[in-house]
Write a structure and sequence with these properties.
44% helix, 7 strands, alpha+beta, single chain, 10 helices, 12% strand, 5-stranded antiparallel sheet
Length: 281
């Protein structure tokens, strides 16, 4: 059946987010975009590409924070971000994001660049940070605040990230995700406590507010995601633990105990959600 011009335009408009998302894919010779149509396939493709693609150029990132980073141009046209310092936290956070099934953290791989071990991560050129879009570091708790923001705070609590602010998450212009967390280098901080982010004036109160803001369906999904973290403790230690031999990035000296603390936080958050759901019945 031959489609009319009007029908073709309607199909394109319906699929525009998916198409625009695919346009950010690297242009790798010998591999067509038709071969990686699912989100999981795209992330696997990006992981393999970031791990193996030759480096065309590298320059210092002028927007680096306390830890220096470099902008890397890979063969095929993709831009990536390289971090040699505190790379272990970035790698673990990306792994936990994948285990929980959020898949919001940009793809991260461990890699040596210019003889320096670190992490190489997917770079989003077209997505502004919250700070750049709203000119403020503090998101308001307005009714239109996306649920993904509150889920991100639950994720931050689990990974022990005390450095989430308006410059450390993106608001994508297209694609499935409404929020993309970036810069998880401070994850798994020892003695992280209840929720010690300097981003929020009253951390405990705002943590509770975010937890209450989640819908019942989101809470149920979150319980399932937290279960995955708890069940994956041994797997996380095998990959990222003190004796993992994860190369080229050396694990944190307290890697095993920090992973155990993370699992304790996941169990605590699950208990909070389940108990509050029972109280509300």
């Amino acid at each position: 059946m031959r489609l009319s011009r009007k029908q073709i335009i309607a199909i394109i408009l319906k699929k525009k987010n998916a198409i625009l998302g695919l346009l950010d894919m690297p242009r790798v010779p010998g591999m067509g975009i038709h071969q990686v149509t699912s989100e999981a396939g795209i992330r696997r493709f990006l992981r393999a590409y970031l791990k193996t693609a030759p480096v065309d150029s590298i320059k210092h990132n002028p927007y680096s924070g306390a830890d220096p980073s470099w902008i890397v141009k890979l063969k095929g046209g993709q831009t990536a971000l390289f971090k040699p310092d505190r790379a272990w936290g970035e790698a673990v956070a990306a792994g936990v994001d994948q285990i929980m099934g959020f898949n919001r953290v940009p793809v991260v791989v461990t890699r040596t660049v210019n003889d320096r071990p670190g992490v190489l991560m997917q770079w989003s050129k077209s997505s502004p940070t919250w700070f750049k879009k709203h000119n403020t570091f503090g998101p308001a708790f307005a009714p239109e605040t996306p649920e993904a923001f509150h889920e991100m705070r639950m994720f931050d609590y689990v990974i022990g990230n005390a450095d989430r602010h308006g410059g450390n998450f993106l608001l994508p212009a297209h694609g499935k995700q409404s929020i993309v967390p970036i810069d998880q280098a401070n994850s798994l901080s020892s003695g992280f406590g209840y929720y010690a982010s300097a981003f929020f004036a009253s951390p405990a109160q705002n943590f509770d507010r975010s937890l209450r803001a989640l819908t019942t369906a989101s809470r149920k999904r979150l319980v399932s995601k937290l279960d995955r973290v708890v069940r994956s403790e041994n797997k996380l230690k095998q990959i990222y633990g003190s004796n993992s031999g994860m190369m080229p990035v050396a694990p944190h000296p307290l890697a095993d105990s920090l992973i155990e603390e993370m699992v304790v936080r996941a169990k605590y958050l699950k208990r909070r959600i389940v108990s509050e759901e029972l109280d509300n019945q």
